[in-house]
Amino acid sequence: MVMLSYERHCAEIVNQASLLASSLDGSDLGVQVPSCPDWTVNQLVRHVGFAVRWADEMIRSRSPEIPFDRNNAMNVSSYAGEKAATLGPWLVEGAASLSAALEAVSPDEMIAVLAGHPGPRVWSRRMTHELVMHRWDAENALGVPFELDPEVASDTLIEWTAMALPYAFQRWPEQTQPLVGPGHTVHLHATDADVELVIDLTAEKPVVREGHEKAAVALRGPVVELVLAVYRRRPVEGLEVFGDRELLAELLERVRF
C-alpha cells in the first residue's frame, strides 16, 4: 500500500494549504459550509489555520505533552466579512511555518506525544489530512471542483483507520459498542489505488489489517470516493457495496472524527 513519507507529509501541508487558499479567490467566503453547517467558509479556514498554528507551536516549543487548552481551532464564531486576499496568505503562512518546524526535528522525537506515538510523525500526517478534508469542505461549499492525488487520498484513507476509528471507540464507547460482534468485518477496497483494508470489529477494540479477504461487508470504489464516504462527506450510493449494508451504515454513522 502507498503510505506517504514524513517528508511528503511536510510538503503536503504547504501544498494542501496553497490549494485551499487558491480556491477562495473571487468567492463569497460568507456562505455556509454544508458539511460543517455551524461555519461559513471563512470560519472553516480560520478553524484549520488555527489547528495548523497550534501544531506549529507544539513542535517549536518541543512540548512533551499536548496543550489542548491552547488550541483555538473551535473558537471561530466571531470571524465574519473576511476576504480571500487576507485569509489565503494567512493560511499558507501558518502551513509553511509548521512544515519548517517539522523539518527541523526528528520525526521520532518524543514531543507532542499522542497515544504513545512521536508527535512530529503523528502531527505531520494529521495536519495533512485535516487540510485535505477541509479543503473539500470549502471547495464543495464554493462549487469549486475538488481534485486529490490518489497517493495522498490513499494515505488519508489509511489514516482514518489508524486515527479516527480507534479514537471513536475510545471516546464514545457506548456509541461504538453495537458495532462489535461475531463476524463483524468491513473491507475497504480502492479500485484505482493499491489500498485494501479490513476492519475487524469482532473484539472490544477494532483491528485493521491490510490485504484482500472476505468480510461481512465490502465497500469498493475510487480511493477519493472511499475517503469521502468514510468521512461522511458523501453517501455510499454510487459505490459498490457487497454484503451487510446495515453493518456498513452503522460503522459510518457511529465513527465520527
From TrEMBL:
Pfam families membership: MDMPI_C, MDMPI_N
Listed GO MF terms: metal ion binding
Residues of the Mycothiol-dependent maleylpyruvate isomerase metal-binding domain: 13-138
One Gene Ontology term, aspect cellular component: plasma membrane
UniProt cross-references to Gene3D superfamilies, sorted A to Z: dinb family like domain (1.20.120.450)
Source taxon at top rank: Bacteria
The MDMPI C-terminal domain, residue ranges: 153-249
Protein name, per record: Mycothiol-dependent maleylpyruvate isomerase metal-binding domain-containing protein
Source species: Lentzea aerocolonigenes (Lechevalieria aerocolonigenes)
